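anyone else get weird line breaks when pasting these?? whatever heres mine. first is seq + tokens for prot A
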Amino acid sequence: MPSLLHYAVVTDPTSLPASQPGAPSVGTVYVIVSNTHQSDVKWEYIDVEIPVGTGPSDLTDDPTVIRASADPDYTAWLEPVPDFSWDAGLGRFRAHHPQGGGRLTLPYDQSLVLKLDGIPVSGTEGLIRLRILEKSGGGDDNVPMRRDHFTTTLGVVKQAAPRIPRNFRPEKNSLADVDAGGNVVLKWDGPDNLDYWIRDPEGNETVVATAAAPGSPVTQQPYMWSPIVPPKRGTTYTLVAGVRGTGQPEQGYFLTTTVHALVPEFGSGTRTPWVEGTVDQGRVTFSADGAEVRNGSGGWGTVHADKADVDGVRTEWVRGRGDDDGWIEFPGTGLNVFHGQQKEWGTVHADKADVNGVNTKWVQGRGDDDGWIEFPDTGLNVFHGPGRDWGNVHADKADVNGVNTKWVQGRGTGDGWIDFPKSGVRVFADGQNEWGTLKAGKADLDDLITGEGKVRGHFVVEGGMKLSHEGQPLFLTLPDRIVFQGTNNFEKWVTFADGLEVTYSKTGSVWISKASKGLSVHGDLQVDGVISVTTGGDAPQVRTL
């Protein structure tokens, strides 16, 4: 006689996968108990007996870890929910009254689910027989409670490997070091009665394997594939398994896996509010103006580069890499050059400087003993050496409105030189305090004072000449005559073309004219000595008066 109650079994997954080395399998078995009568069925216990061991027909080798529970879809009046648990003495799972020994009711048209959860599935594939032991009575024929149990056998399939593609994955990891020539290897397992092809993110498809000939035994195979071009960034590949045929709709299985490049490359750009380092956590934030560089604490960071080609830089200061290096500050007035950690003025070194102006206290050559120029309020001072010794200005030409100097000399130390006393200009020779010679094509002077005048060639005076000694007149030339004052000694002849006039005082003069051919004396004539007269000829013809 069959059991009064009807039994069905459902598993999750539908085919329990057998455990594999390194890949344990856990499943769930649901035993559905139904009352197909139009009357209630009374029962004392319902046992679920599972084969224990590691063989093909065994479900598990450790039933004690299985979680058992009962889930009725009804409520029996004044009856508790059945207890369903492992009975070690019986070696099976038993559903019964929680207080033991009582009877429970399964109303007509109702069902009870006995759940075995967390089953560690044993490792060999095969068919598993579950035995259901039921002690009950009642039903449509009002069968009395039996002394022994009814027995029902149910079957569960334990499959060694699923008959579908699975485990689509990278071989080792999902990172490819493309810069070092690395690539990814994608692997999966599946039956050989399917076609397999890979679809990349752009929709391009590559056929990897085709199905075995129809009628051949279906076997599980491992498959692998690598892209011709390694992924340069995060890339999702789709494994499609099915049958490819002309005009046939695409059907089958779809599995995806995602791989990444160790250093991603984006061909169309990257949009992100910020980028942060992995170790030191420096951060670049993209603002409306451009980019901001921050350090790990959120303050302004430092950009390190071999070269920067920019249209402009806005910064408060610029400094060398060392803390003691020189640095440049940019105040509102221009720029300041400092050195060291304090605000000590620094030095600008350049091959050439093209500026509209330079404001500086002094300028010096590169060496400490070089010449240097100071810029006081009055103009500029040229020094040489570390002290304030006057230096020399060397130039091919100087165009100035005026020169204030103590003296001027030629390039050699033995050359002539000119000094400038308060009285005017003095010319010296041979680098000594000896009077020198002033040579010029013409000299236009209002006054000439000299100790000794030498004329080589003709001496021409236009408009008259006046000679004096210590304020006393000696010699005067006029357009029509020459006037002598004082004593004149002529060692050679003096020729007068038209005449000679000698004035002694306002009242007397002596003159000789060409017209009178004689000597005229106006006033008294006094002779201290002898007056002689000759009529011409030799001296013996002279008569003494």
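and prot B, same format (seq, then tokens)
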Amino acid sequence: MKGFWIYKITASGEEKKDSSITLKKGANIITGPSDTGKSYLFSVINFVLGRTSPPKDIPEGINYDVFTIDIESFETNDKYRLQRKLGKNKVSVWNANEPQSGLTLIDVFSTTVNLSSENHISNFLLNLCGLKGSLLLKNRTKGEKIALSFKNLIQFTNVAEDRIITESSPFYFTNVNSNHILEQSMISLILEGTDFSNVTAIEDPKKKETKISGKLEFIDKQIVGYSEQRQKLIAKYEKLVSNKTSLDKALINDQIQKRLEDSYNLESQVTKYLNDVNSTTEKKIYALELIKRFEILERQYLSDLDRLAFILEAESLTSQLPSQLCPICSNPMHVDEIQHLNEIENFKEGVTAEIALIKEKLEDLKESITESKGNVLKFEAESNDLKRTLDKLENRLESIKPEIENLKTILNDYIEIEKIGNYIEFIDTETATLYKIKDSLEILKSEKESTDIVNVCDYDILKKLSEFIEQRLKTWNYNVNPKVVFNSDFKTFDIVISNKSRGSYGKGRRAISYTACLLGFLDYCLKEEKNFSNFLVIDSPLTTFKDKEISESEDDSIELDDLFFDDIRKTSLESQLIIFENKIPKKIEGINIIEFTKSKQQGRYGFFPTE
């Protein structure tokens, strides 16, 4: 694996105690409050590696005028020491493989001679990166080419805190429009692995293809339309997700089935008890009707008794009267008197027997009435018990119905979330396709127009790069399921995140997405084994996010910090990541953390020693 990493940075001066820090492969974080030397260290790295601007004058750095960086090649493990003095355009390079036996001077390289000279420090460093002698395209129409400089590379890989919040593209690292072709060609050189040695001047046809312009305009409208749809869907998606229960869909479905089964069972019991209530009510009605009939019969019996009693009483009275007529046959009593007396006696006996029989029946009837009244009370009690049980069952049935409806609502929300998620994914796929078609049309249009504004990067490569950047943003939970596509429009040449241009986000999120672009680029080079420096230096990727956005979404900020640090601890040992950050992360295993405390009583004050 090409490239190199820095394992030590030292500042020294006459009669001054050396100040140094030791770094490691993989992830390094230099953290602490402002004015502890973090930005100074950033400028030291750039200065020693060939940039013109020296470190800024700070009180602690007075009389420190010699800066040393110790590096090691990833490919060969050879160690080198690079040293540069303030005010000098020379970088001394020693072989540092056996420091105990003394360093061997390799050469004193210049930072200002022509790039074609072997004596330029850029060629030494580019050789370690496998990029020495590469040519970049400066003007595609004219076919003009220039040599790659290591300065171009660190302008891209070493990002200062004022640059990381830019609205412009991370891949246009100078903000100079005339350099955009050159910057694109460097990105293309690294990602594709071929330089522009064989590129010649391109013809300049004057005809303009209005048809292509019309297609581009139509595609732009579609992209805008999809973007608006996506924003609305994301808002709806987030609302549904925020209200979503912690239960999973399968469990909710099981609960609905259980509630439905309970409902069916209750309905069966309700039906049964309704039938029982009706049956008991019918029995009660029958018993009441029977009582009515018994009471009518009772009145008839009592009437018969009164009638018979009256007859007996009347006979008794008439027998005392001096009547010569038989009360039975109305014949004179003197005629067959014995017979008449017998008839009267038989009549009395018959009436008495009839009275006795009626009384016996009346007693039986009263028992039947009493029994029937008892049955009425029993049936009424049974009916009341059944009704109470029925009320409980109906109340339980009524309480289950809202539960079922609520669960159905939750299940429908899950289904709606999946539906919206699938449609967002569809929009993202369609948008990515539109951007690819747009890129092809832009290239075709540029070949038909008189202009040198033409992309030199293959869109399939940019699309693949976008996937690595997207993975970083997803890992950090940048937003809800972030989708990254590359907008290859020459003026933009930047990523679009969830159908929203990277530059249109706030400062904090721009810093995060800028960092994702660099780390995604590094991931691509490592995965595809492309020649690259394989080290990144990033100043304050999280500081702006914390300062500017924490008031609006503190939880989101804290979560992103933790996910960010947890992710970078996995940085490949075939690369190096140096982050300067005010935010003090947890002591995460796998990250080399150097903390400046700005306190003379605790830990290390800053980069420079305190008196």
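btw re prot B: Residues 337-448 form the longest helix (112 residues). The mean pLDDT is 84.
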